[in-house]
Amino acid sequence: MHLDVQDLRNFYYRSPLGRAAQVSLRARLRQIWPEAKGQTVAGFGFAIPLLRPYLADARRVIALMPGPQGVMPWPANAPNVSVLTEETLWPIETGHVDKLIMLHGLETSERAFDLLEEAWRVLGPGGKALFIVPNRAGLWSRRDRTPFGFGRPYSAGQLETQLRKHQFLPERHVGALYQFPSAKRVWMKSGPMFERVGRAMPGMFAGGAFMVEASKLVYPPKGKVARSKAKKQAIPQGVPAPIAGRV
Q: Considering the entire predicted model, what is its pTM?
């Protein structure tokens, strides 16, 4: 079950631990995808903490937020790029996305099979997807005070196997969130040190999340999903979304 958008916003933008998590995840993302100039970048779930670096140079940035989660207008004081969508029927034409980031989307979905098919559909030739999920061996998945303590945690092997079944080719995975999942002062102060050590020696201890980068294979998924032939929905530009506050 998806978390509520208000809880996700409060964690990432209003709590010290959430802001530290945002820094950790974004740093790893920029190592994998340093830029997206002239490309279409989409995020599904609650990916907005990671989308901001691409706003300036990307051709288009789209923040897709599933109905059960709710939506919030983003970014603040700029044209809105967020849209409320059905979990497995996105308002994007087939093959129009160059880069897709999924954060707090896959592990909380009750229709993961169909969700991965929709992710495959929107990616264009040569498109890349980055799936970010809780690490089942990490401490963050065991504490429900953070969003990483909800839904189904994965091992790297489990996620890669699932992606291959949907015609994604896993290319690399990296860990993140090596600091202790606590807002206590002693752990917050030592957080940057744990992050540096974890990135330098990932086998030393498990991170709270990992990221799997996968490319789209040319053959369509084996499953079949009934899709509506309704008229295409336009991606809102500058239209305020109906729920929650600004970030």
A: 0.87
